[in-house]
Specification:
Mean pLDDT of chain A: 88
Distance between the termini of chain A: 28 Å
Radius of gyration of chain A: 17 Å
Largest interface: A-B, 78 and 94 residues
Largest sheet of chain B: 6 strands, antiparallel
Strand order of the largest sheet of chain A: 2-1-5-4-3
Strand content of chain B: 5-15%
Helix content of chain A: 40-55%
CATH class of chain A: Alpha Beta
Shape of chain B: flat
Oligomer: heterodimer
Order of helices and strands of chain A: EEHEHEEHHHEEH
Radius of gyration of chain B: 35 Å
Shape of chain A: globular
Amino acid sequence: MIRGVIIMNDQGKPRLIRFYEFQPVEKQQELVRSIYKILCSRAENVSNFVKVDSLFGPDVRLVYKTFATLYFVFIFDNSENELAMLDLMQVFVETLDKCFSNVCELDIVFNFNKVHTILDEIILGGQVLETSSSDVVMAVEDISKLEKNSNSIIPSIPGWQGR
Amino acid sequence: MALSGMRGLSVFISDIRNCQNKEQERLRVDKELGNIRTRFKNEKGLTPYEKKKYVWKMLYIHMLGYDVDFGHMEAVSLISAPKYPEKQVGYIVTSCLLNENHDFLRLAINTVRNDIIGRNETFQCLALTLVGNIGGREFAESLAPDVQKLLISSSCRPLVRKKAALCLLRLYRKNPDVVNVDGWSDRMAQLLDERDLGVLTSSMSLLVALVSNNHEAYWSCLPKCVKTLERLAKNQDVPQEYTYYGIPSPWLQVKTMRALQYFPTVEDPNTRRSLFEVLQRILMGTDVVKNVNKNNASHAVLFEALALVMHLDAEKEMMSQCVALLGKFISVREPNIRYLGLENMTRMLMVTDVQDIIKRHQAQIITSLKDPDISIRRRALDLLYGMCDVSNAKDIVEELLQYLSTADFAMREELSLKAAILAEKFAPDLSWYVDVILQLIDKAGDFVSDDIWFRVVQFVTNNEDLQPYAALKAREYLDKHAIHETMVKVSAYILGEYGHLLARRPGCSPKEIFSIIHEKLPTVSTSTIPILLSTYAKILMHTQPPDKELQSQIWAIFSKYESCIDAEIQQRAVEYHALSMKGATLMDILSEMPKFPERQSSLIRKAEDAEADTAEQSAIKLRAQQQASNALMVTDQRPAYDTQAVNQPGLVKLPSMSNVERSNAEQGATHANGALTVIDPQLPSTPSPDLLGDLLGPLAIEGPPGTGPQIEPRLASDLESGANADALAIAPVEEQTQTIQPICNIAERFRALCMKDSGVLYEDPYIQIGIKAEWRAHHGRLVLFLGNKNTAPLSSVQALILPPSHLNMELSLVPETIPPRAQVQCPLEVLNLKPSRDLAVLDFSYKFGTHVVDAKLRLPAVFNKFLQPITVSAEEFFPQWRSLSGPPLKLQEVVRGVRPMPLSEMANLFISLRLMVCPGLDPNTNNLVASTTFYSEGTRAMLCLVRIETDPADRTQLRMTVASGDPTLTFELKEFIKEQLVYIPVPSTAPNPVPPPNPISPQALPTSPPTAVSDPGALLAGLL
């Protein structure tokens, strides 16, 4: 199970925090700080894995990746495959890139609500929901269409409509 | 990006970004929170748009780390908004801010349910997402059927169904009863036929959760998993959008292989073949390429395949291929792959027979200790720790010691702990062990916990040969200029006890030893001074005839500390002073410390606990847990699905015990059938103290300094009051009763060994008995591996075979003493004379300290070991079947009370019992026909035929027909199969229905009155 997804910048400022097991707000901040401390001391060209036993107990793993000024962090237990988590992170980033066309930190700062929407189409309850970036983009586009039509009540979409 | 923005939200975020410092940010946030609070209070003027905006702001503020203790109601209330945008915000923010037990959430259940059963699929998606993220028990109870319906509905879009699958998974975790096993297992199998890979991925996650709890119910999913894996690995019918960097959905491949790891084996030969083909393809077809993402994806699949091969580990050939691959990985440029290569090698250590191949890579692994990435260095350390054994301990530990000087601080503690454990576990000789620990203290004293130096003291105390050496070493370290305080403690302690053994060496006179230790006193802390005082008292005691000068020096020190503010120091000073005034009487009281009771090292214990704790979810670790510790012998135990109650019905005769043993049994000291006897001569009737609790205590040994004050003050006061000298004997710690309990259930171990040829037969804190067997026709050769787990020898070792009448058994000589940490092998030859299900028993006893342990162990020289599966064609079968026309050569019986199992499972069971299932001979698919050859000296090779007719309406009964050319064989085989079919399975989670036999109370065979023992048939009849 994926325990949490964190996006933070290279100053340690959180840009998105999503835990799939409830964490009180102070704990969330403490975790973000501790993770930042570990990540900022890591050199380039090292592995994407760090040990976080002291923060989360044994069996919890953390993978991270840096994209420009941002750290993307996935925290998960040993029922997940580490490299598959990195792949999923890549899907998440590629999807953000498609949705914001050349995503940068500011896009994520000002559209944190949309980032949540996108993430909800990729991970649900700590499990991988969708791995096809184009399917996610499609779902998110549907949602934004619905948002725009906020003045009219949405007619229900016939159930048989396939993709 | 098409998502619509909100101006108010953007302005707020900008304001926050423009804050110069945390204080300004707080002010801005407080202002905003105040504003939101006011607006929420006068809700009337609030448009849905505004509400939505404020709720998002709340989430943003929450992310910044501020507690938002209001507005939850507003967030939840948006869920019931009629329009999509508000509803969506309500759902998302609620699932981020609230935990599953929040009261407001309960209020929303109805709305959520209406959205789930409503026809609007966008609403369905939102509701499923919320429930999947934070749904609790109540949601599980009220929503599970609706969610199930959506998942299997053919009219729902994949978009909804994949969410329903994960939502159901969450509800199942909250309340496993929501998924009714009977109804759901077929549905689950159908779901795996899904073509849409999104739905299939989610369903596979659901399956993983289900099989991790109960794989039995989902056997039918196994072949479908293999099909799915084939489809992906061969890239058949995989849409472009699910191909990630050229790899067909790596996630689904990984999940599928994860699911397969929860099944104990793949029995069906065809499925197995296909699976191994796919695995082979994955193992061979993956290369390291330039593109990082492609590498990650292909290796995600590859590492999962490795894990699966390890799990299925039968194919030895593939295993060595895996190790070879890993050997390649640990030296590639890509750090992630190096990291995982080391990690997987560590996991691989659990598997039999590959340690030697892994050892070939030792040099490369040691190099990885110097990797620029600390994550990789840690993995290398773990691996070296795991692969260490007697053969390479010296190299590895010395390498670790060397590395210790340059290692980063973050790793030193772990490094020194691991080095200490390895040195203890695998020391080729004890002086080397002492060297290592002293070096460790010298190099990294700050990281050496008290446990470590207590342990070395314990070893030295318990091994006389070691004492002069340790004293000499301690003396050498004291010559160094600056030594760590722990070194002062340990060397002072050792020299106090054994310094006199060095007396003739230069620089080792009592005076010289005293003064070099005393030099250190000004540099040490209060906690060390008491140890030094004890040392002085001991030096004084050993100096005979007394040296007046030394005496006055030491007395001066004692009197100085008699007024010390620290109570411990003061007490010791006062008491030692008073005692040393007594002159020769001192000898008795301050004589050498008695030997410590042998216990498992607290270090090793801790290390093992840490390993056990982490075994929660991973399939591979689950297996590792089922395997015995590899300290002595690595075994490949069968998973626990065939565990069995201790008192299986149809218990078979045990060979009668000798008279002596019988009288023992009457005294309530011995009892048979795998139960264990402990004869404690000191306190025979005391119930065993909580030994485990004791072992789990923070220190497994009484620290030498700790025992001083506990014993000595009492002695001092006794002495003053003139108590008689008998009372003065230092209270031996051994007096505590220790009941020696076997580790793991002996009956289970026996049962597992009946199905396979190597494993652990018995283990307790002192000894491990492993078994390896080879069977050829009516001959068998077993080797018993007797491993002493301790640092002291096991004495009075006796192994007596009590063979049943049909077996000739010859055990080679068993040495009377097993040296510390040694393993002896004792071959045992078996000859089968005639068919019988009687059991051979090994009566094993040894002495440890004052304890006599006596275990009666059933030996797995059982009926089915003399079977050899054979395939017969219809042309051979039917004439035989007809010619054996009736009793006593052909026996038929209706068996009731059969453990219900699908026919395929029964077939698997037969195969594991070495009966060849012959499909196609019986046209009725509810029937099963099997054949085998039985070997004994009396019957030679004899063909046996079996037919089982099951009743699909009532799986608890069946009709069994067994035929062979020998009446006894026919009867015994029939009974044997019956025993296997009727036993009451123990659910893995439920407690064992049979209370474990009390090790002290007198007890005969738990299930059978003595008269029945001689007649298995009557016994069985009684039980059925």
